[in-house]
Known about the structure:
By secondary structure, the protein is of the alpha/beta class. Helix content is 41%, strand content 18%. It has six helices and five strands. The chain has one domain: Collagenase (Catalytic Domain) (3-Layer(aba) Sandwich), CATH 3.40.390.
Amino acid sequence: MNARVSRLVSRSGAALSKSKQSDSHRALSITVQFASSRRSVPSSQSFVKWANAAYARALGRRSLKGVSRELTIRIVGAAESRHLNRSWRSKDKPTNVLSFPAQDESFQHMPGSIPGPIPLGDLAICAPIVAREAREQGKPARAHWAHMVVHGVLHLVGYDHEDDADADRMEGEEIRILARLGFDNPYADAKR
């Protein structure tokens, strides 16, 4: 996790799973942490697959080729999500996914810097919120989990939805990535 998030979260009892992507074209090292009940939560392998799909798509759109990156995906409960959301966004409620882009990376490229992957950032995904939203929206839970991972990774590589044009661009990418993964359009019945 990047420094600002790791100071906030408790590591006690968090199950860790790490998977490294060895393809030199899209070197993404992913750590998945389970700090919440794993009941009805997809496997680490699923999170890795979904994150790599979003990152690979971003490689075609952004200048990220040839850069080895690290990503942490932390599955949290409502209390931790609420704490992070309140601390970083001043919103006193849990939310489905929070994206924490890595800090300025310019120091990584200085002579004498330690070689290795450059942090991409961290995702905190709230298990009970994702489950509730999937039920309320009548979506398969697995599809909603995949959407949250793809959405979060796109935020980490610079996508946003602050205005309608940016939202349309980001949603279009999400729809394409999820379709390649075998999931339906997550916005088909949604209203903005």
